[in-house]
Amino acid sequence: MAHIIVVGNEKGGSGKSTTCMHVATALARMGHKVGALDLDLRQRSFGRYIENRRAYLDRAGLNLATPDYRELPEAVASDLAPGENPYDHRLSAAVGALEPICDFIVIDCPGSHTRLSQVAHSLADTLITPLNDSFVDFDLLARMDLETGRVKGPSIYAEMVWNARQLRAQAGLKPIDWIVLRNRLGAQQMHNKKKVGAALEELSRRIGFRVAPGFSERVIFRELFPRGLTLLDLKDTGVDQLNLSNIAARQEVRDLLRELRLPGVAVDF
């Protein structure tokens, strides 16, 4: 069975697609067979990222490891069981096609609550939730007491993850390993960073996730998308000297892969 990695957050702009692409490509470069699905059927940022990669590699005559991206198949009415949701059928068919041939399947969820996202979370062996390092994004996870700064309880997204955990438990599946990724950590605003960090640590103990540092705000991430490249590909495309920012960003990718603690993955790049 393929290990399913779901990247989800009900807020756009948190770095889900960048996280998906770097995780999926890193695993593929390590020799693992990696499938990829994008459940944002309208925007398709992850899907477009991989399409850009294929087009660039064709133009450049390069052969670099690339995730096996698949579109969700359309649901034919005659294939649906009585009462079956068409979106459930489409996702099940896509995962079923990739599972026998992949070590990992990376699934990017839309930045909103959808049926596809809800079902995908229940399939997750590993769940990555990228979070911009601010209380605006933190509000999706938990409600805060404005006077004391204490966590009052889980919010909408955390409740959805809890429901997914319940469904997995009822099906006899292993628990979700949930990692909240602190993205866009700035060098400044140390007081706010410290407060967000303390709130996340408190919440992690209450609802059961691990906190990990993610990707800093860097221009390079936006520049890589049109060519479908990741930070790990730069030397293979003729970039001999990496600047300090790029070197630091590559280290962030290594640190993330180690923190995920995926089965059979030795991070040595």
Automatic annotation (TrEMBL):
InterPro entries assigned: DNA_Partitioning_ATPase (IPR050678), MipZ (IPR015223), P-loop_NTPase (IPR027417)
Family matches, as Pfam families: MipZ (PF09140)
PANTHER family: COBQ_COBB_MIND_PARA NUCLEOTIDE BINDING DOMAIN-CONTAINING PROTEIN, P-LOOP CONTAINING NUCLEOSIDE TRIPHOSPHATE HYDROLASE
Official protein name in the record: ATPase MipZ
Species in which this protein is naturally found: Rhodobacter ferrooxidans
